[in-house]
Each structure stands twice: as structure tokens, then as C-alpha cells.
Amino acid sequence: MSSKHSPSIKDSRLVAAQEQALLRARQQATREQAVLVAVEFTADRRRLSPAAQQARAAAAILNRSAIGEEPEIDASASAPKPADLDFDASLAEFQELARSAGATIAAVLIQRRPHPDPATLVGGGKLDEIVATVAATGASLVLFDHDLTPSQARNVEARLPCTVIDRTQLILDIFARHARTREGMLQVELAQLEYQLPRLAGKGKSMSQLGGGIGTRGPGETQLETDRRRINLRLDRIKQQLEAVRRIRRQQRGRREAVPVPTVALVGYTNAGKSTLFNSLTGAEVLASERMFATLDPKLRQLTLPSRRKVLLSDTVGFLRNLPHALVTSFRATLEEVERAELLLHVRDAASPTLDEQRSQVEAVLSELNVGEKQTLQVLNKIDLLPPETPFAPGAIPVSGLTGAGLDDLLHAIDAALTSDPLIEVRFRIPQSEGRILSALERGATLSGQRFDGNLVYLTALGPATLLRRYRQYQLREEEALPEG
């Protein structure tokens, strides 16, 4: 029986070894110089809102006045179109992704064209320029701020004497660097294999393999078919292991839900300061770094609110514009904490020039997870980087995870937003001999108006309904009054 299963085990180990070798090669490559290629497709450029168009028209008028020219009436039509702000922000973000992967940027090449070239994405002329730049800089890596189709990747690699990595591959490599738990490693490997599978390229009959035994005397199985079979076997195994992880998480969640403790999840754009805020609120020591995707594996810590109510705070992976769908699918086990949370804290970088766009990108991913309608508090982090008189949007909670400013307001807002176990106020008359009950109320609720009358203690408690209703036999009726103190 064992001999029948040995080929599958061998194949799985071989694929795992190949993936680790490929990962090490990519990590070694990203320590060297890289050429960044960014492409803006003008035909797909997002139409500006009327307010943005008016702002750009006004800026054009001011520029023409500053150089002594008479402003024209239709300034929006006559003024030259400025560079697309979304493209500039995307390019800056891609450069930060490259640095997070450990690459040294040797050169940045930009191209604007109406549509992507179906063969090479950038066209033959730009590809010649990339080849010349690689030769001049000695770069060993070319990073594309765009996803390459399998045919585009093969055509570009055929022209370049170095490694070619597109946007999704780069993000996957960064995730692989930061994965620490077995769950995180499995999810990264799943996403990598699913991305690699349609990009396999065989050599045709020259790589055919003949099998042994009757019925195998033919062209044989090509190397491409062999690689696909091995990857599919490995994918099935990883999915089984991830399903075991989900089963364990469901069991742990079931034990938590037996004692009703609400979960609050931190979500937001990568590098918005979620981990720093998480550390400030819980006293944890989660890695907080300016590098993108520094936090990959979810963290759960207990948090005590001003009402002394206990909640679980979850720190999750950061989101990104155009986040690869494979990552959202592969990390669904990690993002289950977001799906189960009663309240989301959308942490945003208040000092970011693309604050509103980052919000829309995060909300798009939340909608993909079917949690877009979940109750959410908007938290503006990093206010220590802004002038003191900076105005904030109504309803947003300004905080600084670094200095601790505004954290008390945030805790009170969380307290008020939780509805599954609402805060209620109850008056009690409890015998002093019931020290266990008095201690439980003191730990889990806010007590006021304590009065002593013989062997009885009269008090008013403000706390979660599930706690106070346990002791309803000691509750005072509405017509009963507390003794005079």
C-alpha cells in the first residue's frame, strides 16, 4: 500500500523543494539592483470628479497668471493636462513595495500609452530601452508595476538577460518573507502555486518522458504536464491543511463564543499604523514597521474598555490598491476574524496625500469579503504628523498610535458602538456575605452610589447586560430607593 502512495509524497516534496529554491533565488535577486517599469494606460484613466476638474482648472489659471500670461476663459480646455495624481501615487507605492522586498532601485522607466501591447505590454521600442537600461545599470531584476500575462512574461524574459517579476509576484515574495506561522506559510504557498500554474511553459516533445509498462509506449508525458500534475497535487494538499486550520479556528472560536466576548478587528491600508495602534491599546509587542505588509499573521489580544467590558482586538494584514484576488482568496482563513468581528476599526493614515483613495480601496476589499455593511468606525491615525489645527472629517476619530493621543476617545467610541452586549445600568441590593458577586461586579462593571445598610450593600452598576443579568435576583425594583447615605 505504501508503494502506491510514495510517488505522490515524492512529487509533493520535490515541488516544495523547487518552490523553496525559487523563493531563495528571488530573495537573493531582490537584494541586488532593480529597474522599475511603470505603465499608465491613458484610455483607462479614471475620469476626474467635477470638484477635481475645477481645482485643476483653477491651478492652471494661477500658473498662467504667475508667468504673466492672460488667463483664457476656458482654462480647463486650454491648459495642459497635469500628470495623473493616481498614477504618481501608484508609482510611489510600487517603489516602496520594491524597497520592502529589499531591492535597490537603479532606474525608473515610465511609459504612457492608450492600451497595453498584447505581446510585451510596453511595446518593442520601450522594451529596447529597458534592455539598454539593464545593460547600463547592471541590474539583475526588472520589476513591472503591472501584471503580465503568461505570454507577455515569456516574451519579455526572452529579451532580457535578468529576472522579470510583475506586481503580483513582488507582493507574493514580500508575503513569503514576512510569513512566520505555519498557517501564513501555507497561505503564501497556495497563492504562489495558483499564480504559477497558468504560467508554466513546456518544451514540447523534446521534454517528453516515457513511462514503464504496457500502454506507455508513446510520446509520453511532457515536462509541462508533469509540472502541472505535481503542482495540482501540492495545491490539493495545502488546501486540506488549510481546511484543518479553519476547523481548529472554528473550534477555538466556538469556545470563545461560549463566553460572549465581542471581537473588534483593525482593518486598513498597509502601513497605516495598525500594529502601532494595536500595541498602544493592548500593551502587546507586535512588530510595527514602516515596511509594507510587516504584519501578515493575525494577532488577538484582550482589551478592557472604560466600562470594564472585555473585548478581543484583532490585528490583520493590511490591504493595498489592486490587491491580487489570489491573495484575498488564499488569506480567507486569516480574514475570517474580520468576517466574525462585531465591529471594524478602519485605521487610516491621516497624513497620507491619498487618504480618500486608500479608503475606497479598503472598502472594495471589504465588499469582496461580504463585510462591507458591517458597523465600522473611521480612525484617523498618525495625527502627530499633522499641524495641531488640522480639521478632521465629522465622525472620524483622530488618534496617534505612537503618542497615545485620542486613545481614550477611541475606547469610549468602541464602548458605545458595541450592540451585541449593550451597556445597561442596574441598581442592586446585595448581602455583604456575597463577596464573590461583589468582586465580579467590581471587575466587570463601573460601580457608583454605594451605600451600606446593616448587612446589605446598595449600589448602582453600569456594565454589560450579560454580566448584570446574572444577578437579577438582587436587582432593586424601580419603586425601591437606595438608603440615605
UniProtKB/TrEMBL annotation:
GO MF annotations for this entry?
GTP binding; GTPase activity; metal ion binding; ribosome binding
- Kindly give the Pfam families that the UniProt entry links to this protein: GTP-bdg_M, GTP-bdg_N, MMR_HSR1
The places in or outside the cell where this protein is found are: Cytoplasm
- Give the GO cellular component terms, alphabetically: cytoplasm
Which residues does the UniProt record annotate as the domain Hflx-type G?
Answer: 262-422
Q: Which SUPFAM superfamilies match?
A: P-loop containing nucleoside triphosphate hydrolases (SSF52540)
The residues the record assigns to binding GTP are: 268-275, 293-297, 315-318, 381-384, 400-402
| Positions of transmembrane segments | none
Report the cofactors. Mg(2+)
Q: Where does Mg(2+) bind?
A: 275, 295
Question: Keywords in UniProt for this one?
Answer: Cytoplasm, GTP-binding, Magnesium, Metal-binding, Nucleotide-binding
Instruction: State the residue spans of region: Disordered.
Output: 204-223
Give the protein's function.
GTPase that associates with the 50S ribosomal subunit and may have a role during protein synthesis or ribosome biogenesis.
What family is reported? Belongs to the TRAFAC class OBG-HflX-like GTPase superfamily. HflX GTPase family.
Database matches in NCBIfam families: GTP_HflX
Q: What does the record note on quaternary structure?
A: Monomer. Associates with the 50S ribosomal subunit.
What protein is this chain from? GTPase HflX
Q: Which gene encodes it?
A: hflX
